[in-house]
Design brief:
Number of strands of chain A: 22
Helix content of chain A: 40-55%
Distance between the termini of chain A: 60 Å
Strand content of chain B: over 45%
Number of strands of chain B: 11
Largest sheet of chain B: 6 strands, mixed
Largest interface: A-B, 28 and 26 residues
Structural class of chain A: alpha+beta
Strand order of the largest sheet of chain A: 14-18-19-17-16-15
Number of helices of chain B: 3
Oligomer: heterodimer
Radius of gyration of chain A: 34 Å
Shape of chain B: globular
């Protein structure tokens, strides 16, 4: 079967299932007895196995199959959950993740799976609980081997029939039939099996139901409840006569056992049923997250981008129409254009919100990362996530992951203390890292706080002075906030020892830079002994930004408002010269001037020396610079576009935008112009 | 009868001065008329800037400049050939583009090496078709000359 067309779906859905596995494993670690969690894991593993088998990734399906077995055993209390087991399970899921990643990057998904399978196998062997009744054992082995297809629900009516038939000397059987994998006419084979069975007795129930079997909506196995006077062997023999049957198992079915088991696991069955229902509904994996149960469809992000582009074309044409209608002064035309403007405004809002994704997409990988880090650092840390459904633009989501990872590593490494230290300080042994996201105006705030040691102000200062980040004599002028922010200055790293976790040669200054490039800002708050909070403020979207349009000769450039402090018109006599550098005195600060005309090599028309110059004061961190332009055009909301993959590394240009007249204007990256 | 399925290569032919060049048709996504170009400062001199190609900002290079020919005034015949390559789109300014032809693969020869001429690596082959001489371009080499990084470094 050609499965390539399903590959994308497979990769996406596998990723979702792996995510569920990770999440639920974390849950399992906290609540080892929780049946719902175990069920959830089991289902995820099972679905993954099914998909992998269909796509022909045998290693993936092998591992998931074993994983599934483990949970099957847990489900039926044959083995119990313990910490070292969870480790192996995590390892397994990591392994699965690797395989899926390999597949998504074009690999064949082949891995040496023997070690992991062996580990899983030992889990299965471990502390198997003593079995009281041999008949029960039979029942449970049936359950574990024929998991999917064993008969789960038997209604009262069917039970009565089974009981009656027993009283009349018939035997009840559970028959498990497996068709060969390359069987083409599964429906026909099922029909033939049923025909054989009908001759010898009566089929009470089948799993999957008969109509599904007829429509071939099953893998290769099905199970029937069967009443007959024939012996077990006879039935097996008869069924085997039908061709393309790989395997037939006939087990006696005991109604008493069934009812006992049913009572015992009544609520479990209830849950299972719920889950079953959910599973059928769960075509879209985003629905599987219980908290969000809206109706959604998957849309390729590329299509959304195309939609956005087309819409921008429309906006440009709208601009033209507006100009035309104001020139013509035709009442009907004007009315129509106004209506169109309103409608397209609404449309713009909808398209923008369509590109919004919950921050959970970034957050969801952190619990597992923190767990791993906590073990590496021998710390005991709990994660708390608040506001995971806060939405922001996909472009921001894509960029924010790495800075957050860095901050979390930092909090884990420098913030949270080792358990002994925490106890000594009178804190609970377990540290907490809180990730919180919420909206505030046109911004999203993401806060990463820990209840660790906080920031040692004196140590930071001493280190900053030593490294020349601040001067000794300036040091005492800084307030707490400013001192904390020193740890994000370039050339600073408080860690005394370079550690594996956060001392990777890049400091928090990289984080700060990334966030500022995104048009956001970061601030730190800390109290010694109690913990610290890093607060990141980000724009909701990066695709539409407010800019100031300026002119350099005939060329138009855009400067993002987020980096502008103010604009000024300055008399040439107020320009000072300071060692090859023109500067101005701006509200008590000496601000260097950057002449954009020469930086951007704009061809000069005759040099009419004007009496006043127009300056845009921009900031990078706490540094200022004055960009000298020819004239200001005005403020505008524009759609940010990249210059394309061909023109990377352009100097001081961060992107482009398309103006109302269809012309392209370049967006100036103020950060690059400030040293 | 022998099965004569001659392998052909479909190419777009464009003109620079009086020479004819060819690029594989699969690499060409559009052919556009000249449009206003927004200059991008401090990039290699053959990069003329960017245009708005139906909402996508697309870089434009002047092939004459790239090939060391003098740049010319743009005329009515001047075209921008939009090349799709390596997941990026780049426009090439050419004097004219007016032909799509099939070149039998067996008549394509490797580029002649002429003693004394500067070593150009962007010509992949030469095809003589009737009385026309077509120079087949290696788009990757055209777009990313080895010395491009140097150019950038010098300019910045």
């Amino acid at each position: 079967m050609d499965t390539s067309q399903y590959l994308d779906v497979f990769i996406e859905e596998s990723a979702d299932h792996l995510e569920v596995l990770y999440k639920q494993l974390l849950e399992l670690e906290k609540h080892p007895e929780e049946k719902a969690v175990i069920e959830e894991i089991f289902r995820a593993a099972h679905t993954l196995k099914g998909m992998a088998a269909t796509m022909g990734y045998t290693d993936l399906s092998d591992v998931t199959h074993h994983l599934e077995n483990v949970f099957d055993n847990i489900r039926y209390n044959k083995i119990s959950v313990h910490p070292s087991m969870v480790d192996v399970l995590f390892e397994t899921v990591d392994y699965l993740n690797e395989i899926v990643e390999d597949i998504s990057s074009g690999g064949e998904g082949k891995r040496n799976v023997t070690t992991i399978l062996a580990k899983l196998e030992t889990l299965n062997q471990e502390d198997v609980m003593p079995v009281k009744d041999p008949s029960e054992e039979v029942a449970s082995t049936i359950l574990s081997t024929n998991e999917l297809s064993h008969i789960e629900e038997i209604d009262e009516f069917e039970l009565t029939i089974l009981k009656e038939s027993m009283e009349r000397g018939f035997s009840n059987y559970e028959i498990h039939v497996e068709l060969s994998e390359d069987c083409l006419l599964k429906g026909a084979r099922v029909f033939m099996v049923f025909e054989v069975l009908e001759q010898l007795g009566e089929v009470i129930k089948s799993q999957p139901p008969v109509h599904e079997l007829e429509e071939e909506q099953f893998d290769h196995t099905f199970t029937v409840l069967y009443v007959s006077k024939q012996s077990k062997e006879e039935i097996e023999k008869r069924i085997h006569k039908v061709s393309e049957i790989v395997h037939v198992e006939v087990h006696p079915f005991s109604v008493i056992d069934y009812t006992a088991k049913k009572h015992e696991a009544e609520d479990q069955a209830l849950k299972l049923e719920e889950n079953k229902q959910e599973e059928t509904k769960k075509l879209d994996p985003t629905q599987s997250k219980k908290s969000i149960s809206r109706k959604t469809i998957r849309v390729n992000i590329e299509r959304l981008d195309i939609l956005m582009n087309l819409f921008e074309e429309l906006v440009i044409d709208r601009g033209r129409l507006e100009t035309i209608s104001s020139e013509l002064d035709h009442a009907d035309l004007r009315e129509t254009v106004e209506r169109m403007t309103r409608v397209s405004g609404d449309l713009q809002n909808i398209i923008l919100t369509m590109r919004m994704v919950p921050i959970d997409q970034v957050f969801n990988r952190f619990p597992r990362m923190i767990r791993q880090l906590a073990r590496d650092l021998h710390k005991n840390v709990e994660v708390e996530i608040i506001g995971a459904d806060t939405e922001l633009d996909r472009t921001v989501i894509d960029e924010i992951g790495d800075p957050l990872v860095h901050l979390i590593r930092n909090a884990m490494d420098h913030g949270i203390e080792v358990p002994e230290q925490r106890i000594k300080n009178g804190k609970s042994e377990q540290g907490t890292i809180t990730l919180e996201a919420y909206h505030s105006g046109n911004y999203v705030i993401i806060e990463i706080s820990d209840d660790g040691a906080g920031i040692h102000k004196e140590k930071v200062l001493a280190s900053a002075i030593e490294k020349g980040v601040v001067k000794q004599e300036e040091a005492h002028l800084l307030n707490d906030q400013q001192v904390y922010e020193l740890i994000m200055a370039s050339g600073f790293s408080t860690s005394e020892t370079i550690s594996e976790v956060s001392g990777r040669g890049v400091g928090l200054d990289v984080v700060k830079n990334t966030i500022e490039t995104l048009g956001g800002s970061i601030s730190i708050d800390a109290s010694p002994g109690k913990g610290s909070t890093f607060s990141i403020q980000l724009p909701l979207t990066l695709s539409i930004i407010s800019v100031l349009l300026v002119e350099l000769q005939k060329e138009k450039y855009a400067i993002p408002l987020s980096s502008i402090i103010e604009t000024a018109v300055i008399h040439t006599k107020d320009i000072y010269s300071a060692h090859h550098q023109k500067v101005i005195d701006f509200r008590g600060h000496v601000v260097p001037l950057v002449f954009l005309q020469s930086v951007f090599e704009v061809s000069k028309t005759e040099g009419t020396s004007e009496e006043y110059i127009s300056v845009v004061i921009v900031k990078k961190g706490d540094k200022l610079a004055g960009l000298v332009v020819d004239s200001f055009i005005g403020q505008q909301e524009v759609v940010l576009k990249s210059l394309g993959a061909y023109l990377t590394n352009t100097y001081a240009i961060s992107g482009a935008t398309i103006l109302g007249d269809g012309e392209v204007a370049l967006i100036i990256d103020g950060n690059a112009l400030i040293k | 009868m022998s099965v004569e399925v001659e392998a052909n290569k479909k190419v777009i032919v464009f003109q620079l001065k009086n020479e004819e060049y060819a690029v594989p048709v699969e690499q060409v996504s559009f052919i556009e008329r000249m449009e206003p170009i927004t200059r991008v400062p401090r990039v290699a001199s053959f990069v003329k800037g960017v245009i708005n190609l139906r909402g996508v900002v697309t870089p434009i290079i002047d092939v004459r400049n790239r090939f060391g020919m003098p740049e010319s005034e743009h005329t009515d015949a001047t075209r921008i050939i939009i090349i799709q390559f390596d997941e990026m789109e780049v426009g090439l300014i050419v004097d004219a583009a007016n032909d799509v032809i099939d070149i039998p693969i067996n008549i394509i020869e490797s580029a002649p090496e002429i003693v004394g001429s500067s070593n150009v690596d962007y010509i992949e082959g030469v095809a003589k078709l009737d009385d026309r001489l077509l120079l087949l371009l290696n788009i990757q080499k055209v777009l990313t000359p080895e010395d491009m990084n140097e150019i950038k470094q010098v300019e910045s």
